[in-house]
């Protein structure tokens, strides 16, 4: 089990006429991923998804909050002693080209981490080759074909499968898949998603799935949890199916309305939520206090301008919504014509 509590991160960005500015990438985020579980984070570009994935994998520091892996708070350990724990989390990058060293064969790419694993678990060196073959078969590729080959000799889909096999060499508890299919040919995406789903069952690995596409989040974790990130804040959280069927935060509603086809959920155009355009970036960022979504929300009131809604405290879970949200006016909405929402 891997949990995060109150994870916050602010980046300082240099430059511009205003000099350095602070960009809050994550605001007080809580999460939990279990073995075999599926947790999806969804949000638009810049919402903090990659930052969160990197923090969970130990590749980025955070300013506040605690990551607990297998019951051990990471803050209690020295940097060096954290490393074995963070190996329990393996990151799968969106670009399988850059994730693999072009000068090494697949055999070489798997051999190094497996040699480490063999040492850690007291296995003989002969185990390395058989395990490499086993892992490649597990991700659905022919070991005899790929082992002697270089990354450029493989298709994008195969490369991503090799990346997943390499992540599995460490027997991780959780795979963090950050837009793992976005750079793969559309025809091959479903195969990779099906593989991740299958690995949850077969190997018992948890998947933390990061995406801007709610349809893929739904596919990978229809039985799992969905977290909706908006500008670094989780604004809605609950069972994936529940949220997709019944989103209550206006931001989630707008994300869902952008899906062209989602079988069983399509509604006529007039029933979709289309929030207003932001009233201006500067106004949105410069405000202190108040709901972060106000600049784009067609339903905001004076209270939303003044007070900041907190996930779980100000919204749900209640009987009507079941999921938690950070909204003062959560509602099942069906008729929200563009521009007439107020
Ligand atoms: N190393 C960094 N230095 C400064 N700012 C950063 C850094 N990394 C991320 N940010 C900022 O933090 C915010 C969140 O970025 P992040 O990459 O986590 O978003 P994301 O949800 O993954 O976006 P995308 O969908 O485009 O991948 C953005 O405003 C980004 O500009
Ligand atoms: Mg990203």
TrEMBL record:
PROSITE patterns, sorted: ABC_TRANSPORTER_1 (PS00211), ABC_TRANSPORTER_2 (PS50893)
Domain ABC transporter: 2-256
Keyword ATP-binding: yes
InterPro entries in UniProt: AAA+_ATPase, ABC_transporter-like_ATP-bd, ABC_transporter-like_CS, Oligopep_ABC_C, P-loop_NTPase
UniProt keyword rRNA processing present: no
Organism superkingdom: Bacteria
Region listing for Disordered, in residue ranges: 307-327
PANTHER family: ABC-TYPE DIPEPTIDE/OLIGOPEPTIDE TRANSPORT SYSTEM, ATPASE COMPONENT (PTHR43230), ABC-TYPE DIPEPTIDE_OLIGOPEPTIDE TRANSPORT SYSTEM, ATPASE COMPONENT (PTHR43230:SF3)
Protein name: ABC transporter ATP-binding protein
Protein source organism: Microbispora triticiradicis
């Amino acid at each position: 089990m891997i949990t995060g509590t109150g994870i916050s991160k602010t980046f300082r960005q240099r430059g511009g006429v205003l000099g350095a500015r602070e960009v809050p990438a994550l605001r007080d985020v809580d999460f939990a991923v279990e073995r075999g579980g599926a947790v999806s984070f969804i949000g638009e570009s810049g919402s903090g998804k990659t930052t969160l994935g990197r923090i969970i994998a130990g590749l980025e520091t955070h300013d506040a909050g605690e990551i607990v892996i297998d019951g051990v708070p990471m803050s209690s350990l020295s940097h060096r002693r954290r490393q074995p724990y963070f190996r329990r989390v393996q990151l799968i990058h969106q670009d399988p080209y850059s994730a693999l060293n072009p000068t090494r064969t697949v055999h070489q790419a798997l051999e190094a981490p497996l040699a480490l694993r063999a040492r850690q678990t007291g296995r003989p060196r002969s185990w390395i080759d058989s395990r490499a073959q086993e892992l490649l078969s597990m991700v659905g590729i022919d070991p005899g074909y790929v082992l002697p080959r270089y990354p450029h000799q493989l298709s994008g889909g195969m490369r991503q499968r090799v990346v997943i096999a390499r992540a599995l060499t460490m027997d991780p508890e959780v795979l963090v898949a950050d837009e793992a299919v976005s750079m793969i040919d559309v025809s091959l995406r479903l195969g990779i998603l099906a593989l991740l789903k299958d690995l949850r069952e077969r190997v018992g690995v948890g998947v933390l799935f990061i995406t801007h596409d709610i349809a893929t989040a739904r596919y990978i974790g229809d039985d799992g949890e969905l977290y909706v990130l908006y500008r670094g804040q989780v604004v809605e959280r609950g069972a994936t199916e529940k949220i997709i069927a019944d989103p209550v935060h206006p931001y989630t509603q707008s994300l869902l309305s952008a899906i062209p086809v989602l079988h069983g959920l399509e509604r006529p155009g007039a029933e979709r939520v289309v929030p207003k355009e932001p009233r201006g970036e500067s106004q949105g960022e410069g405000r202190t206090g108040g709901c972060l979504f106000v600049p784009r929300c067609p339903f905001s009131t004076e209270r939303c301008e003044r007070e900041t809604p907190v996930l779980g405290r100000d919204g749900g879970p209640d009987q009507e919504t079941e999921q938690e949200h950070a909204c003062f006016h959560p509602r099942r909405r069906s008729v929200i014509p563009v521009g007439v929402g107020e």
